[in-house]
Write a structure and sequence with these properties.
- The chain has about 450 residues and is an alpha/beta fold.
- It has two domains: about 375 residues, TIM Barrel; about 80 residues, Golgi alpha-mannosidase II (Immunoglobulin-like, Sandwich).
- Helix content is about 30%, strand content about 15%.
- The chain is built from 16 helices and 18 strands.
- Helix 10 links the parallel strand 7 and strand 8.
- About 0% of the residues have low confidence.
- The structure holds 2-acetamido-2-deoxy-beta-D-glucopyranose.
- 2-acetamido-2-deoxy-beta-D-glucopyranose binds next to loops.
């Protein structure tokens, strides 16, 4: 009897877990829990971005409309365990089984997950299995890894080309867990299964993936039972693609570097062609985590303040192969620099839903959803030094890295003679396919996303 009840419960839990296939159609909004909303009406500023600013689970729960109204159907939140003093970001755990009291209670976290689920939104939890908070030499304060034998002996990662050093040495002062130790290994695996099922998380973002051996990730992924995307902070496609397999997917750092090169630094747009050829090294590009900005890098607008370049790059990250992740604040044109300046407080802007960037993000997110881009192969349509055009299904996207107004006749396109094709950003900006060509005019560096006019009508 008890056994059959347990099997029944296990089936329910298994059915709830979201697979890579289910994540394909999702679009993720990445936020830092400490920086999104305080949830108590206090909208004053933050004195020190290097310390807690006061964001909470309740604040997120109260402001899900702000996220969902842009069309997002998933959020990525900061790690939740109790952290070392001042570690507002969550990457320096002290107690893996507790909940960071700065963010709220276990119940507040559960309420957030439930509120998302009742809206049809997924919740992705950020997790760390490489290291704990900087407590050395007093490991006794870490729950459950309270002995020095659970860690690699101290050494510093200096040579990032030495994989053994990357896996065995420490990131700064953060004690490096020894996944070779059987207690550490089995406890991390049971912990991830426990936390996913306790709260009902739908997916994971896995910190510092390349700092841990791949054989551990295979087992960790299996225990997690939900889609997991690992952080492999490296632009080398051959190196990064090796972590898809051990984990379901990785964050698409190669794409991040491509978009910086062609849009922020004025690189040749032919790079995109070479890039897409090289990307075939991945087992499955459609489930990679694509992003333009995140909490570990200066924002795009810090590196290039040109709003059209930013719009081109952001649109590309949302419409290409893979699962898009938009970093909070991009929809308000944030331009913070190096950590922690790229971790601004959002609460002064939560009512600012008419801003140009908020409306732009809404359009690109809804375009991806309406056109169901994840169902179609990616096809290059036109490339030169300053112009690049690709399609997925009936959707054609045209980009430029120059402020000059340019015109291109795209003869290799998926449309039929006489079809009327419209740009989603300007009502009435439509062209008729003539002599087989889609005539693309980009004014002063703008990006255009096209769809058949017949589909624009359906939107109403
Ligand atoms: C470590 O934690 C275990 C389990 O709570 C406990 O039995 C043990 O005494 C602790 N050891 C140290 C060194 O704190």
């Amino acid at each position: 009897m008890i056994k059959s009840v347990l099997i029944f419960l296990a089936l329910i839990l298994a059915a709830k877990a979201a697979t890579p296939q289910q994540w394909k159609s999702r679009i993720i909004y990445q936020l830092l829990t400490d920086r999104f909303s305080r949830g108590n009406g206090d909208n004053s500023g933050c004195a020190d971005l290097g310390n807690y600013c006061g964001g909470t689970f309740k604040g997120i729960t109260q402001n899900l409309d702000y996220i969902q109204n842009m069309g997002f159907d998933a959020i990525w939140i900061s790690p939740v365990p109790v952290n070392y003093q001042g570690a507002y970001h969550g990457y320096a755990a002290i107690d893996l089984y507790g909940v960071n009291p700065h963010f709220g209670t276990e119940q507040d976290l559960q309420d957030l997950v439930n509120a998302c689920h009742s809206r049809g939104m997924y919740v992705m939890l950020d997790v760390v299995a490489n290291h704990v908070g900087p407590v050395s030499p007093d490991f006794s304060v870490i729950n459950p890894f309270n002995k020095s034998e659970y860690y690699h002996p101290y050494c510093q990662i200096n040579n990032w080309n030495d994989q053994h050093e990357v896996e065995w040495c420490w990131l700064g002062t953060l004690p490096d867990l020894s996944q070779e130790n059987q207690y550490v290994r089995s406890t991390l695996k049971s912990w991830i299964n426990w936390i996913v099922n306790k709260y009902g998380f739908d997916g994971l973002r896995v910190d510092t993936a390349v700092e841990v051996p791949k054989d551990f990730w295979y087992e960790f992924q299996a225990s997690a039972g939900v889609y997991a995307v690992g952080e492999a902070f490296n632009g080398d496609i051959n190196y990064v693609s090796g972590y898809q397999g051990p984990l379901d997917a990785v964050l698409n750092y190669p794409l991040y570097f491509l978009l910086r090169n062609i849009f922020a630094y004025g690189g040749d747009m032919y790079q995109a062609r070479d890039f897409m050829n090289s990307m075939k090294a991945f087992k499955d590009q459609t489930i990679l985590g694509n992003f333009l900005d995140n909490h570990d890098n200066p924002r795009f607008l810090y590196q290039n303040g040109n709003i059209n370049r930013f719009k081109n790059a952001l649109a590309w990250s949302v419409v290409t192969l893979g699962i898009p992740i938009v970093y909070y604040g991009d929809e308000q044109g944030f331009n913070g620099g190096y950590d922690p300046n790229d971790r601004e407080i959002l609460w002064p802007y939560l009512k600012n839903t008419n801003s140009d960037m908020y409306q732009f993000v809404t359009k690109i997110v809804k375009y991806r959803k309406q056109m169901q881009l994840w169902n179609y192969p990616w096809v290059e349509r036109y490339a030169d030094h300053n112009f690049y055009c690709f399609s997925m299904g009936n959707a054609v996207m045209a980009f430029t890295n120059t402020d000059n107004t340019i015109q291109r006749s795209v003869t290799y396109n998926p449309y039929k003679e006489g079809d009327v094709i419209c740009n989603i950003f300007w009502s009435g900006d439509c062209v008729t396919i003539t002599n087989g060509a889609l005539n693309v005019v980009l004014l002063n560096g703008e990006v255009k996303l096209y769809m058949p006019k017949s589909m624009m009508m359906e939107e109403k």
